[in-house]
Amino acid sequence: MINGLRRIPVCVWLAVFAILSPAVSWAETAQRAVTLGRETELIAARTPAEAEAPQDDPAQQKGVFNPQEGFQAGTWHLGAVAGYSTPLNLPPRERGAPNVHFAPLFLQAGYTVTDVHGPTPIRGSAEVILEPTFLITSTPKKTFGEGASLLARYNFVTGTRLVPFFDLGVGILHWNLELRNPRILGTRFNFTLQAGTGLHYFVTDHLAVTGEVRLHHISNAGRQSPNIGVNSMVYVLGASYFF
Question: Mean pLDDT for the chain?
Answer without folding.
Answer: 80
